[in-house]
Amino acid sequence: MVASRRGSGSITLPTGQTMTIHTRTHEEEDLPHATKKTMADHLRKYESLFTLTPQRMRMIVEAFKDSLELGLQKPKQVVPMIPTFVFGWPTGKESGDFLALDLGGTNLRVCLVTLQGEGKFEMTQTKYRLTEEQKQDEGQKLFDFCAECLKTFVDTNFTDEDGTSLLKPGELLPLGFTFSYPCYQSRIDHGELIRWTKGFGAKNTEGRDVAEMFRQSIEKYKIPVVMTAIINDTTGTLIASHYVNPKTKIAVIFGTGCNAAYMEDVKNIDKIKELKINEQDQMAINCEWGAFDSFEHEHLPRTKYDMIVDETSNKPGEQAFEKLISGRYLGEILRLVICELIDEGVLFLGQETYKLETPYVFETAFLSLMESDPTDELLMIIGIFTHFFAVETTLAERQFFRALAMLIGRRAARLSACGIAAIVGKMDYLDEGCLVGADGSLYNKYPGFADRVHEGLIDIFGEKGRNIKTVHAEDGSGVGSAIIAGQERRGPISACISRFMEISVTLG
Ligand code: GLC
User: What is the pLDDT of residues 435-460, one digit of tens each?
Assistant: First the structure.
């Protein structure tokens, strides 16, 4: 069989099976593998399916701009363009201690942020991984869990060695709640969940005020905090990035989900005209752009794999843009292509492939690892396929998988560029240029993601696209939330918000 090996060993899989791993210099001859030519032919097919031409990108940008405008004009549009009631940019002078609780796509975090003014801060945090059950269970139980974690954090960080509280009697710590799901807001400390995204489905929560639900949990656990703001991670990122670098005009998250926020002139937000907010003011808008092209599917180039991802998700039809881009879905798209080639008898003939057949087993992190494999023989890819899926691969197959990861990752980045370009175009930021604060696992960890976004911007705008630069954002879910919680405690914004509290309108 194998003529030469450069190393071998074995590992025990969770199932108890023992797997032999080896690195090879010669290909295995005893399994029927697809030829190099077959793999190259298949790759050409996927190239044409997953490649976005500059012309197509510009068409997407135009449709995207229309959706953003529509969302500002009328309530309850597909891209909801949510007014956040965060008014204007931070001064950079904000200071003090603030708590932030961040319920994102994968983790729950509790942070203590000390803002030191002049764009500086310090942070202590604790992270908890959410289980799949918690994401689907009763909503109130999810908020109880958040409150339990918050209580442990406050008890740990605000008591001395004798267990005596460091807080003055009656003192309440200001808390910003980063809740990264689409919520209609009619005030900054209120948020009605429109719909769960990113695979969450906790019951009895959609349509309800999640800030109020969380407040009930805080009361239940008697935690000495006052929640002054509920914010989206993109809004937090916008504010935090601007606190650190005032050239920031837009914030984007490319993580488990994908979304953007930017600062809009109040006079352009037609749907809240009746609130009679000062037309000179500015307000951050949480675009919820992951919903672009949902339901109608008119503008985005969806492949049949994207359609399967959509139809088998807990929210078919929804978050159409997000499903082509975000970390929750990219691994699944690649897995579906592999499964198709298994079914067609092209890949892994004669091998047990059941491990590849479970939805979502192929993590997006594997695509990152495959793309960054530095070895000629693609040893990292051998590792992934043998360790996790117990299948043998040839070099031609591994090259194919890597190229496929590249196509899917590149399409995600280029579509992301279309979203950014739509905001840039709408706001006319191209000539003067701007920074885009960016965060999320895909942006931070996927090799070359940022470069591909920048290439995409040049494809859309030509050389001027270079004026728009994404930069790794400061932790918006923590720091941004703290800055906003701080602004609220200081008062000027609260005073202005109380004016609107009496006006009961449903905003969208
Ligand atoms: C999803 C959420 C959105 C969030 C984004 C990034 O798109 O709906 O609120 O900002 O994920 O976490």
Answer: 999 999 999 999 999 999 999 999 99
Closest of 48, 37, 46 to residue 337, by C-alpha: 46
Residue nearest atom 12 in ligand 1 by C-alpha distance = 257
368 touches ligand 1 (CB under 6 Å): no
Residue 4 φ then ψ, to 5°? -145, 145
If you write DSSP's letter for every residue of 386-427 in order, what string do you get?
Answer: IIIH-----HHHHHHHHHHHHHHHHHHHHHHHHHHHHHHHHH
Cβ–ligand 1 contact at 255 (below 6 Å): yes
| Cα 323 to ligand 1 centroid, rounded to whole Å | 12
Per-residue pLDDT tens for 186-237? 999 999 999 999 999 999 999 999 999 999 999 999 999 999 999 999 999 9
310-344 residue pLDDT tens: 999 999 999 999 999 999 999 999 999 999 999 99
Q: How far is the CA of 129 from the centre of ligand 1 (A)?
A: 17
Atom of ligand 1 nearest to the CA of 234: 10
Distance in angstroms (rounded) separating the CA atoms of residues 419 and 417: 5
Tens digits of residue pLDDT in 260-294: 999 999 999 999 999 999 999 999 999 999 999 99
290 CB within 6 A, ligand 1: yes
Does the beta carbon of 198 lie inside 6 Å of ligand 1?
Answer: yes
Residue whose pair of structure tokens reads 């993580």 in the numeric block: 255
For tokens 């997953």, name the residue. Answer: 50
> Which atom belonging to ligand 1 lies closest to the Cα atom of 257?
11
Phi and psi dihedrals of 169, rounded to 5?
-55, 130
Active site residues: 180, 195, 233
Question: Across-strand partners of 184?
Answer: 192
| Cβ–ligand 1 contact at 253 (below 6 Å) | yes
- How far apart are the two ends of the chain, measured CA to CA in Å? 65
Which residue, 413, 426, 507, is CA-closest to 81? 507
